[in-house]
């Protein structure tokens, strides 16, 4: 298996979690190394990781790490909460990084209406710019969508979506999943699909075709049950896969094979 979305820089403490999230701070206190995280994941059959950028510094860091570690790919972008920093100069460097062979995604970008750290105008402008970068570089677009489902879909339709679109840590319901499936967008499920109060996510997973499902940790955030309140890590991916397999009435190995094929369709073969 593989983890389609994690933040190695935050996990190893090279970048502090801007939100002050206690789980992320606990992960940093553990002082793990990239090598240790990769080794731990490989021990449970998670052999590939995609580490995702959220500002220029993290995008540079992730691109550098993916250049060194053959089991790691990178995504580069300015997070919607940082959209005010998406100047033409910054976006030009993001596009330059996106053109590197070990960088396989432009993300995470999108819209976040839960927080007001950046204006909606700035977020929309940044999102549209990243869509164009993904199309010019031929890389997958990884979307952060928080409380903004309708507008995210509208911008993708208006701007014209790249060939591969991934809704990271999918947070929609079954209706949203059906809309994404109709458009051919990939839905990446994370730890919350295992939470008792997240029945709507399991309904979404049941609706999503297996050909459009990915899995991720968003580590060090969003750990699956029974690890809530503790730092997340790529080695916990099997817990999410088993939950999804149960929801879809599939054999876990069969679903894992489908997800692995989806990952290669989105990010390319390792």
From TrEMBL:
<feature type="binding site">
    <location>
        <position position="218"/>
    </location>
    <ligand>
        <name>a divalent metal cation 1</name>
    </ligand>
</feature>
<dbReference type="Pfam" id="PF01026">
    <property type="entry name" value="TatD_DNase"/>
</dbReference>
<dbReference type="InterPro" id="IPR032466">
    <property type="entry name" value="Metal_Hydrolase"/>
</dbReference>
<dbReference type="GO" id="GO:0005829">
    <property type="term" value="C:cytosol"/>
</dbReference>
<dbReference type="GO" id="GO:0004536">
    <property type="term" value="F:DNA nuclease activity"/>
</dbReference>
<protein>
    <submittedName>
        <fullName>AraC family transcriptional regulator</fullName>
    </submittedName>
</protein>
<feature type="binding site">
    <location>
        <position position="5"/>
    </location>
    <ligand>
        <name>a divalent metal cation 1</name>
    </ligand>
</feature>
<dbReference type="InterPro" id="IPR015991">
    <property type="entry name" value="TatD/YcfH-like"/>
</dbReference>
<keyword id="KW-0378">Hydrolase</keyword>
<feature type="binding site">
    <location>
        <position position="108"/>
    </location>
    <ligand>
        <name>a divalent metal cation 1</name>
    </ligand>
</feature>
<dbReference type="InterPro" id="IPR001130">
    <property type="entry name" value="TatD-like"/>
</dbReference>
<keyword id="KW-0479">Metal-binding</keyword>
<feature type="binding site">
    <location>
        <position position="7"/>
    </location>
    <ligand>
        <name>a divalent metal cation 1</name>
    </ligand>
</feature>
<dbReference type="InterPro" id="IPR018228">
    <property type="entry name" value="DNase_TatD-rel_CS"/>
</dbReference>
<feature type="binding site">
    <location>
        <position position="168"/>
    </location>
    <ligand>
        <name>a divalent metal cation 2</name>
    </ligand>
</feature>
<dbReference type="GO" id="GO:0046872">
    <property type="term" value="F:metal ion binding"/>
</dbReference>
<feature type="binding site">
    <location>
        <position position="144"/>
    </location>
    <ligand>
        <name>a divalent metal cation 2</name>
    </ligand>
</feature>
<dbReference type="GO" id="GO:0016788">
    <property type="term" value="F:hydrolase activity, acting on ester bonds"/>
</dbReference>
């Amino acid at each position: 298996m593989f983890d389609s979305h994690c933040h190695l820089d935050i996990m190893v403490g090279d970048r502090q979690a801007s939100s002050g999230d206690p789980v992320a701070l606990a992960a940093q206190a553990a002082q793990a190394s990239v090598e240790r995280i990769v080794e731990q994941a490989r021990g449970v059959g998670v052999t590939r990781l995609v580490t995702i950028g959220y500002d220029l510094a993290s995008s540079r860091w992730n691109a550098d790490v993916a250049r060194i570690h053959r089991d790691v790919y990178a995504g580069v972008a300015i997070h919607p909460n940082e959209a005010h920093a998406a100047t033409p100069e910054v976006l030009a460097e993001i596009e330059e990084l996106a053109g590197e062979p070990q960088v396989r995604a432009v993300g995470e970008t999108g819209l976040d209406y839960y927080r007001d750290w950046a204006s909606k105008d700035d977020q929309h402008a940044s999102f549209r710019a990243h869509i164009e970068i993904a199309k010019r570089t031929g890389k997958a677009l990884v979307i952060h969508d928080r409380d903004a489902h309708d507008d995210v879909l509208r911008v993708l339709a208006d701007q014209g979506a790249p060939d591969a679109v991934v809704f990271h840590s999918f947070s929609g319901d079954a209706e949203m999943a059906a809309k994404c499936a109709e458009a051919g967008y990939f839905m990446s499920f994370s730890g919350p699909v295992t939470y008792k109060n997240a029945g709507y996510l399991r309904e979404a997973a049941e609706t999503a075709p297996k050909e459009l499902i990915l899995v991720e940790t968003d580590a060090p955030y969003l750990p699956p049950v029974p690890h809530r309140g503790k730092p997340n890590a790529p080695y916990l991916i099997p817990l999410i896969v088993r939950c999804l397999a149960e929801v879809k009435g599939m054999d876990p190995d069969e679903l894992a094979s489908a997800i692995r094929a989806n990952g290669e369709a989105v990010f390319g073969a390792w």
